[in-house]
Amino acid sequence: MGAGSLLVLALALQLWPAASGPAASSVAKAGRLETVLPVRLGSGGARDEPIAATEEMKKAVGELLNFNDGIYRIYQLSEARVSVYIAWWEPGRMSPRLVAGHTPDVCWPGNGWLRDNAAERRLGALREELSATGFAEGEVRVFRMQNKPEYVVFWHKVGDRMLSYHTGYAPPWWAWLDEMWRGGLNLRKEQLFVRISSDTPLETIWPQAEMAPLRQALLALGLGMAAKPAR
Q: How does pLDDT run across 98-108, given as a tens digit for each residue?
């Protein structure tokens, strides 16, 4: 298929009326993110930081992520620190491909972090804990800076599907076609990006009782197994 045909196809899919309106927003139903997240976990404290301080936004120089709601909250547990970054876009606000360009895979290395692929191969226990607590499969990562590890899990939800390009890096050149194919005729869907990170292996703290309020809040936002994997 030539470039001209691809352009015509793209325009046709963009302009064709959607078969149905966007589904009810789990985020809109839950409320503003700052009130949905727990104010503390266990007996530890918490603080909100500017979203501009996240690794994702440090890399977004000159580009506005244009989210409708966002929060960056850092919790201190009894034996660990847990950072939570969430951004939400209403339908039609932002291209999923552009949002995917600011995942930890892309932004963290650009800010001095090194991805530890060897450590990631040992993260089966975290995947099991996520599944056991009712969560959709997330992208699990380990990054290091000056030999200090940071353990990460993130989700990018578009409509009712979890998005992944399966490349581990920036979206590939064909991402816009993949985006149209998976989006069908209704490309205007809400998006939710959630990133949890800690200085402690997440599989050791995820099932703990003091994490329960955070798990419940994230499930209320739509990260449960009912979310469909991207095709």
A: 777 778 888 88
pTM (global) more than 0.70: yes
Burial 11-40 (b: 16+ CB within 10 A, else e): eebeeeeeeeeeeebbbeebeebeebbbee
Distance, in Å, from the CA atom of 22 to the CA atom of 205, rounded to the nearest integer, reads 36
Count: domains in the chain: 1
124-145 as b/e: b if 16+ CB within 10 A: eebeebbeebebbebbbbbbee
- Domain extent, residue 123, equals 3-229
Could you tell me which of 24, 48, 30, 29 has the C-alpha nearest to residue 217?
30
Instruction: Compute CA distances 22 → 25, 133, 160, 173, 220, whole Å.
Output: 8, 28, 10, 27, 18
